[in-house]
Design goal:
The structure holds two protein chains of two kinds. Chain A is mainly alpha-helical. In chain A, 63% of the residues lie in helices and 11% in strands. In chain A, a hairpin with a 2-residue loop joins β3 and β4 (70-74). Chain B has 14 helices and no strands. Classes of the chains: A mainly alpha, B mainly alpha.
Chain lengths: 314, 322
């Protein structure tokens, strides 16, 4: 069967983003913690000279000249003169996406932040997947009482306005990345559990499942051998869409200052920082926003594509 | 049907109670309390303790919970720590702006989503469909906080067409009735567009799929064979069954209508429920958190109920077995 184009596009987009975030920081010239004095708010595609000094400081500036035997390092408001003896190394670099207020490379922060965003969303969705699968299977196969209790619990949890709940939890617990994963995962398994329960209930009417039950198959084997393989397609599709939602949720929380702590780069946090100085540097909020959009679209395309190929085979 | 509605309505009460109780447990389990959030280094430990006692935070959790529940049953939501006034007054002040903003957003969502989906399925897989598919997919992936910033950058900062924040101009109190309404709409425009665009993307994606499903059905073939013109076929025959899921979307939108879009309200300084809930959560303002959650939860369950009932009204098939 032909693979849907959407799946191809989505998977390529996701791979590009994952590869860029994973390998990109190794390929870029290391600009360290930046140089707030000389390299702040440089536009995209600026070329800079990096001077590493003997005392461990790093100066980064788009304009470095040698005048009267001294390095003249020009910044927007300051000019530093450095004797050549103090300079340990001189390298050049290109800031593809410009620099922020603190003279840090935006592309580098974007890629490092992407690692965090991707990891948080992937682990969050894995947690939701495990919980959702377990609860869904338990509700469908555990008898009417377990089913009733679990389904009413899901109703109650779904009755929380999700973003309010996320904000409440993150404001209360001030999460690091670990708690954030738990918060995101534990607030997003309900839809999947419902899906799994419905699928399993319909599977139970099929003759191969009934045959297995008559043969006396025990539940762990029943779950792993009969239910899970038949759940793959709908679950994979739902998981891809759910991961997109988690990326957006994490970015929103980080934007509000309640997600990834400000000491780490994150896409949502970068948009928030960028919007504070929007007039001095449009690139600061534009690129992280585009990165979030690209990731969410890729995941949505994968979800759509999986749905299409599922329809084709059914 | 009335009996079903009443039974479902009665089932809402324990659900809303459960949500409020869970919220209470979560807030209690979290470290810190309102007294710790007061940001004043000169506050002595004794004063902090006095603040704790003043708001009843020194009592046991069970004690606090029971007295809150008792008060709620008599219709008293308590007094907000943060705003120093009754929770009901804070919430009833924040609700109208939220309903106004989210209502306009919802309206735009439906109108735009419907228009995009209809335009897309006129010639499925034609270039118009492709453009709309790409557009709605892009809007679907755009985070609303980023879109809001871009709208502000383009339409208020660069072009200066719309104000970037708040509900009224500073001198709005001096404006006459009509001018003040125009002022309000002027302020409403950008945040409502922001909500509407993000919502319309999902709606259009969804509606397009259902419209195409309907298109493939046999009654459409029969209608086409009867010589019914294309536009009538689309607007009358295909749209009616395709609108069924929109009823569900409508029900799902109600919670946002009441609890507010926290992000859009925060960016546009819109004085609504989202802002109140955000501030309450940050200040550990327990009565206000509980009050806002109560209203939000009630809205979610009511929304689902209304959607179910509307479904039964529009689709006779769904009345049967329930």
């Amino acid at each position: 069967m032909k693979t849907p184009m959407r799946l191809v596009w989505g998977a390529s987009g996701l791979s590009v983003l994952v590869l860029a975030c994973g390998l990109g920081p190794f390929l870029l010239t290391d600009t360290g913690d930046g140089d707030p004095l000389h390299a702040s708010l440089l536009p995209p595609l600026s070329t800079v000279t990096i001077l590493e000094l003997n005392d461990g400081r790093t100066l980064i500036s788009p304009e470095v000249k040698i005048e009267n035997g001294l390095y003249q390092v020009r910044g927007p408001r300051t000019m530093s003169s450095i004797p050549p003896d103090d300079v340990a190394a001189r390298t050049g670099a290109r800031l593809w996406l410009g620099s922020d207020r603190f003279g840090r490379d935006v592309l580098r922060r974007l890629l490092v932040g992407g690692r965090i965003s991707l990891t948080v969303a992937a682990l969050g969705v894995t947690l939701a997947l495990v919980v959702g699968l377990f609860i869904g299977l338990a509700a469908a196969t555990g008898g009417w009482f377990a089913d009733a209790v679990l389904m009413r619990t899901i109703d109650a949890l779904l009755a929380f306005p999700l973003l309010l709940l996320l904000i409440l939890l993150s404001a209360l617990f001030r999460p690091g990345p670990g708690v954030l994963i738990a918060v995101l995962g534990l607030t997003s398994w309900m839809g999947l559990a419902r899906l799994v329960r419905g699928q399993v209930l319909s599977l139970r009417t099929r003759s191969f499942i009934q045959a297995a039950r008559v043969a006396g198959t025990r539940w762990p084997r029943m779950w792993t051998l009969h239910y899970l393989p038949n759940l793959k397609a709908p679950v994979a599709q739902d998981t891809a869409l759910q991961m997109g939602n988690l990326v957006l949720a994490e970015a929103t929380l980080s934007f509000l200052g309640l997600g990834i702590p400000a000491t780490l780069p994150s896409w949502g946090g970068m948009v928030a920082d960028g919007q504070r100085v929007m007039l001095d540097g449009w690139w600061l909020s534009v690129f992280p926003g585009l990165a979030i959009t690209a990731l969410v679209i890729s995941l949505a395309l994968i979800g759509d594509g999986l749905q299409k190929s599922g329809e084709g085979s059914a | 049907m009335k009996r079903i509605a009443l039974r479902r309505l009665a089932a809402l009460v324990p659900l809303v109670w459960l949500v409020a109780t869970l919220t209470f447990v979560v807030v209690q389990a979290a470290p810190g309390s309102y007294a710790d959030t007061i940001d004043n280094p000169r506050l002595s430990p004794e004063t902090r303790e006095a603040v704790r006692a003043r708001y009843g935070l020194d009592r046991s959790a069970g004690d606090q919970y029971l007295s809150w529940l008792g008060a709620v049953l008599t219709g008293d939501l308590g007094t907000s720590f943060l705003y120093k006034e009754p929770v009901s007054r804070v919430l009833s002040r924040a609700l109208p702006p939220t309903v106004l903003l989210a209502g306009s957003g919802l309206l735009l969502t439906l109108v735009l989503g419907l228009a995009l989906a209809l335009a897309a399925v006129r010639h499925p897989d034609g270039w118009g469909d492709r453009v709309i598919t790409v557009l709605s997919l892009t809007l679907y992936g755009v985070p609303s906080f980023w879109l809001a910033g871009m709208l502000i950058l383009i339409f208020s900062v660069t072009l200066g067409w719309f104000p970037a924040s708040h509900m009224h101009s500073v001198d709005a109190t001096r404006l006459s009735g009509f001018a003040s309404l125009a002022d309000l709409i002027h302020h409403l425009f950008l945040p409502a567009i922001c909500l509407g665009l993000v919502g319309a993307a999902g709606t259009a994606r969804y509606l397009r799929a259902t419209l195409l499903d309907v298109h493939a059905s046999r009654f459409m073939l029969a209608a086409r064979a009867r010589g019914i013109p294309n536009h009538r076929l689309l607007l009358v025959h295909a749209l009616r069954p395709a609108l069924l899921p929109v009823v569900t979307l409508f029900g799902l939108a109600l919670p946002v209508l009441v609890s507010g879009s926290v992000v859009v309200e925060a960016i546009f300084s819109w004085p609504g429920m989202g802002q109140v809930a955000f501030n309450a959560a940050r200040a550990r303002d327990i009565p206000l958190i509980l009050g806002a959650t109560l209203i939000g939860a009630a809205a979610v369950v009511l929304g689902n109920l209304v959607a179910d009932l509307l479904y039964a009204v529009v689709d006779p098939r769904s009345r049967g077995d329930r």
